[in-house]
Amino acid sequence: MTVGGGFGGLSGAADADQAGANSLGLGWAASLDATGWINDYVGIRATGGWAQDSLDGTAAGLVGRGKFNKFTYDADLVLRYPIKSGSGWILPYVLGGAGAISIHQLEASDTWTKFAGNFGAGLEYRFGRAGIRAEARDNVYKLDRYGFDKTQHDIAWQGGVTLSF
User: CATH: 2.30.30, 2.40.160, 3.40.50, 1.20.120. Which one for 2-90+115-164?
Assistant: First the structure.
């Protein structure tokens, strides 16, 4: 079992509309996760994340600030390849899975939830039971509010710590 947490940045991979008039600005992302290891190479991870970014531009139906809280919750398959390095381990990995994203516009009353898939890659360096890691993930969902109708990619990149039991 490994538990971890991370903090970093968030950005939309593309404009929210086809015309390019509305783009998601740079934001922040934080997450907590727990991974149960089936063997040294394969694990199942549960992740919860909180991120915030903003929409630049004007969108139909968007009132108040264009700033959004985004909450993600998902289950992932993790594949890693442990490499012994001196007194520690280098652990490159890939992951992918499914879950949901709930999006709440600040200063608005509604929150909406969509199915979301995700995939990513990371690198952990473990010394004993503790480790540090860098990870990038793409959360993919359908953005169909405020006059948009597009598959959205929210890219989160984070640095963090891990503890293995």
Answer: 2.40.160
pTM of the model: 0.88
Residues 6+ apart with CB under 8 A from 80: 40, 41, 43, 91, 92, 93, 94, 124
What is the length of the chain? 165
Mean pLDDT of the chain: 90
In the chain, what are the domain boundaries?
A: 2-90+115-164
CA distances from 7 to 20, 39, 64, 118, 133 (A): 29, 27, 27, 17, 11
Instruction: Please answer whether residues 67 and 104 qualify as being in contact, where contact means their C-beta atoms are separated by less than 8 angstroms.
Output: no
